[in-house]
Every structure is written in C-alpha cells, then in structure tokens.
C-alpha cells in the first residue's frame, strides 16, 4: 500500500522508475498541468513549461514503525531517506551529511517579543558550510550520482558555491561553479577553497544565470549537473527536511506558526509540502498550521503582492543588505502567496535597519549570530506580533537559514567595543563598566 | 562504590562539596603536590602554586548502565554530565549546548596520506560559535552559576571572546570581555554582537592577561567569573568531552592514535585525562593509545623541547598564521611532554606554508574548511606519517578545533577563481575548463 505525495493523486507505474534508483521517487510531475515523465535531469514541463516536482511512492500503513526507523537513523537528513528522492543506502555514501540542526527553545527572545506560547529558532547555521544550502545540495548530489553526472555546477552569489564545492569534494565529483566576478573576497575564498574550479563571470547574477542556461544546452556542458537548474526538482526537496526535523524535534507535532524567509520562495513551498506529507503518512496529527513568509523591504515583491491582494508577483530590482534573499523575480512567488493565504498566514517585510536590529536582538537574547536572512525572519516575527497577525500564545518556529560570520558587513558599522582603555584599573574604572 | 579520577588516588570526603552542587566534582586538588581544597573559584594551589584540577567521585560498577544513560542523553556535551563538574539537571538550564560534533570518516584524505587503517576528523567547527571553545565555556558557565557570579569575563584574542559572549547571552549572565584593541574587525564584531561589554586594551595579549589578573584581585572585579583564570579548573574539563565523544563515536573504542593541537597544552592533557577516565570506569577496554601534539613552527616551544629531550619548555615569541595556537609560554607544556613520551607519541610542527597546504588538502578531500589550527594538525599528521612516527595501518583521529571562516586571511592570498570570463560560451571554451 502506498499514499501519494500531497499534491499528486494519480496512480504511479513502477516502470517510470525502471533505470534510476532514487528510493521512493518514481517520476517527475508538472506542478501546473500534472504531466508525468520519468525521473531525469529536467526541470520544466515539455507540455506547459511549468516546474517539475518529484512524485513519490511514500511509505504508509505503519507510521509508528516509520517513526521508530527515523529515530534510529543517523543524526542528519538521511534519517528521512524513506521520504526523499535518494536510494535507501544513501547514508553509506560519502556526503557532508547536513541537517538535524538544533531547534533552540528561545525563551529569552520570547519574553522580549511578548510571546507567551513557545518560540523556537530552527538554527541552520549549524550545517557543515553554515547555511541551509547544504541540505538541498546533498539531495542534488545523489541525483547527480544516479544520472551519471561527473561534474557538479551552479550559479551562485556565494553561499551555494561553497555548499557545492564542499559536497563535491567529499562525494568525489569535479565541481565548476559560476559567480559574478566582483563578489566579496570572503565569499570567493569560501567558494574556491574546496579545490573545484571557480569561474568569475564579468556581469551580474542575472548574466551568470543566463550563461549557465546556455551552457546546459551546449556540448560543453555535457555530463554536468547544475544543482539549481537541471537538478532543481531534486535539489528543492532538500528543504522538506526542515519541516521533518521541526516536527520531530517538537515531539512529532506540527508547529502552530512558522516564519520562513523568501528568496525564490522554493524553501517555503517545500516546507509546506513536507508538513503535508507528514500528515498524510500519519507521522503527525493533522491540525491547522499557519505559514508566514519574510522578505526584506528592499526586495519584497511577494510581500507587496500579498498586501495588494494580487496572485501575480511583479518583479523588482533588489536593494537590501539581505543579499541571500535578493531575488527580484521569485519563481515560486505565486505558490507562496497561495500557501500564506490558504493557511491563514501572511507575508511581511522589514527594512535593513530592522534586519540589523533583529540580528542583534537574537544574538543578545539567545547567543545565536544569524546572517541577514535570519535578521529578516526575526524582524518580521516581531512586526507580525505587533500587527496582531501572529498569535503570541501559540507554538511558533522561526527559521535562521545561515551564519552571521558570512554577513559581517551588515552589523560591523554598529557593532564594536564598549570602550578602549589603557591596561590599568584606573582606566577601567573611568570607563564605568565595573559591575 | 566509586572510582577516583585518573590522577587522583586519595579518598574523598563528601563534606568537601557541601555547599556547591557540581555533580561528581567533589574538590579541587593540586596537580603538583596533591593538596586538596573545597570547590571554589580558585586556580592555583596555595601550598605550591601548582595548577588545581577537579577531583571526582565518578560513577562505577555498572558501565553498561552508564553507557545506555549516555546514549539516551541529549546530542551535546550534557550527555556526559555524570563525568563532568556540572549538576545532574544541567541539560535543563539555558546553554548554547555545544558538542557531539561530527567524527568524519576521512577516506579520501586517508588515501592521499597513505593511511591504510581508518582516519577520522573530529570536526569541532560544528559547535555553536564554530570552535571547541564553546565546550570549555559551557562548563565554566555552570561553575559561575554555582559560585554565584553574575558577570562572565575572559582575556581573548577573538574566538574565546565570541564563545563567552554567546554563552553569557543565552544563560542570562552579563559579560565583559577583554581583547587587544587592534584585532581584525571580524573578530571584534563576533565578540561584540552578543551584546555584552567588549573592552579593547591598548596593548598586546600579554598586557590583556596581566590586566585581567589585576582585576580579579580588585574590588572592581568582584562577582566576576573569568572563565580562563579563576574558573580555569572547571573550564579545562570541557576538553575531556572531546575524548568521550571520539570514543563513543568509534563505538566505545579507544583510537590507536590521536593528533591534537597545542596552544597552552590544556586541551591535550584533558583529552588524555578523559581517555583514562573512560578506561577506569570501564566504558572502553583498556589498551595502549598514542597521543601526538601539533604546533606551528613559528610557535613550537613544546615541539622543540620534545625533540631536544627536555622536560622544561623554553618560552618563544610567536610568529605564525596559526594565531589561535600562538601561546609562546604554554602553561601545560611539561605535562604535554610527559603524555607524548609516556604514550609513545610525539610532538611535531609544520611551517605556515604547510599549514595552508593542509587546510586546502582537507577542504579538497573531505569538504571541511578548517581554521589554521586544523591545518596544523592535518599538516603534522602528514609529516608524522612521512617520518614513520605515526602508524598508517591503525585507527587515527585528527582534531579540527575551529572554522576556516574565522581565518580567511590564511588562505585568501592563494585561493581564488580558476578563470574570469565574459558571459558567453566562446569565452568559457577559451578558459579550457570544460570537461
């Protein structure tokens, strides 16, 4: 017996999956028209150009047994292998093994925000290269293995390049990643240190993306798996593991409310997909949950559309310190709007000053140094409470998807010593810092 | 029934520990003269000025039961609470909960180094503030709580300041940490972002240290717990958890060989102490293990003394990129020499170029971006194999104690793009990077 993944009611023929072993993944299916094709390195529907998603033959009938199997699994995303497009023996293959990051009960922050229920930070800075990108890349690596690719690639503004470089090194792939040539030195070093090829493109991120699309169609790119292009359907599924972990870490319970950053919107839609799968399989009890999306004001096309009551997202030119969220034309924007509205959530944005304040608030209360994207979610949580849109008496989970060490520039201008003193007690006394 | 900690054979009177609950810790005892005093915020023996250590009343008689208790504990250092100077309910107190970091089986690196046994990297960059300092600070915080301190402090060149800032924020302490005023901006930001007071001292690290010693003796410093001064006996015990985790992650087995960086030497001595405790309690089977110490050539007083056959370490003025190991007069140097000699290990050093090469080697083979201290241990491992001092057919564990993101400057000059191209296929073809 089997249940289908949340969005997919069709029957599945096992032949779809005859040559490729990606565990419970049996086919690709179009999110728009439902067209179904065999598993392969493609990302858009030939019939309608809609985005392709994984169709699963998910386990069913014995949720208690599955729960025990998961709990006895490794302390990383592979504990959820039965729910992911990966072979059953995935945990034995070389991987940087991301995931199972801390869910931090944030009582100090809750007090400051006036939250009387429970507040939790899902802190993905604990991943191997310190961002949630390790999750999505790890899944893409297994797809690349299955499809016989030998080179891993991506277009990136930094974080993804590092995640691909690290994952490829450990898994034994060559890597060749593309970035705008004028990135900050820190990001360049992080992307290059794993020894793969790093190519700077004279142009902006859009130019890099366009070049990668060209390369995929050319013989020069043969044998190349672009994690966020031709492997995107697999890659995206990595974000589901955030939903699985949050529920397991809450004692196999759904959170009431969850605040998620929006870049392309993929992460938010996949977390929703993951929650629905857990309900369908019977791993958590079905009850309503609300999904909130968080953007930076300087790149807030989804928040704008949400507030204006539109179904369509109008592209913008990003201008914000939250660079990892600065996608002006988010591919999954319409799906995000649908999920926020359907679950009774909302999409909200905060300005750069509020982002910095929120980074410091989280650091000061919980000892977690978040990247700008974490400042966006914490800042938006604060604003949603003030606006009465987020219920402070319920269980709320807020995502921090990256590490403050990667976006030092955001807080550096306003973060420094309380005093500079000479090395003697008089000088210290004058500074007025003694308790 | 009770067994004593490895170095301590005296009987223990429970009254020693009448007022302070730090679990199995019952007294402080001098490593030199054996003098025993009640638990308190002191670090040097009044009788002989020797360093004070924790004396324990460790569990015994049922290693299987203890092993099960540990395995059912939290995924952090508090799973070892029965072996640490912390109250039994420590896991319920606010802490950044470090530890239980990955032990990575490094097959790719093993191949490159000619290791035919098994090689493992204990990767402490996975701690909350991305260095092993989180372990030692977490234990010091519990001691500070027990002794009624309200302010946490330290002298630091960066990493420790960040660890103290984060831990204090989450645990509800005020913090006030002291650094040389001219540190790199990144380290200053990391130390200040958690909202405690950060004081820059006009002087070098030695000046900072001297100032802190003065402050401890002055009413201005009343109520202050300096994690690496008056709380040092507790703080140091945090490093034992590295030994516990390594053995548990090897399936409750001792490694044959372990390579550990040397700064003050405390970490190495405490890992040895931890291994001996596990043997004594019966959690691992007793068999020989060798401990190797690793230094950077530009600050290698212990390596020098080891090679010269001396028992005493002659201080040096540090000059190396491995700044977190740059202690020219290591307090535990003589103990390190004793352990390396007694276990049949060695102390070796590598130069800065070898450190950088080793950082890149580890990144390229295993996808782990280590700080300079990790380059020192990997580089020394390579050298020890070449010299025939480390047996490549055995089980070897190498420590990486920090994160490459914190020491970007070490690799930046030699790490960058393979090519800069225009965004078109011809330009890419000319670069010669197609597969």
TrEMBL record, chains A, B:
GO biological process assignments: isoleucine biosynthetic process; L-serine catabolic process; L-threonine catabolic process; threonine biosynthetic process
Cross-referenced InterPro entries: Ser/Thr_Dehydratase, Thr_synthase-like, TrpB-like_PALP, TrpB-like_PALP_sf
N6-(pyridoxal phosphate)lysine: modified positions: 133
Cofactor(s) required, per the database record: pyridoxal 5'-phosphate
Domain Tryptophan synthase beta chain-like PALP: 98-402
Keyword terms: Lyase, Pyridoxal phosphate
EC number(s) given by UniProt: 4.2.3.1
Listed GO MF terms: L-serine ammonia-lyase activity; threonine deaminase activity; threonine synthase activity
EC class: lyase
NCBIfam families assigned to the protein according to its UniProt record, in alphabetical order: thrC
Entry's family note: Belongs to the threonine synthase family.
The protein's name: Threonine synthase
Taxonomic lineage of the native organism: Bacteria, Bacillati, Actinomycetota, Actinomycetes, Kitasatosporales
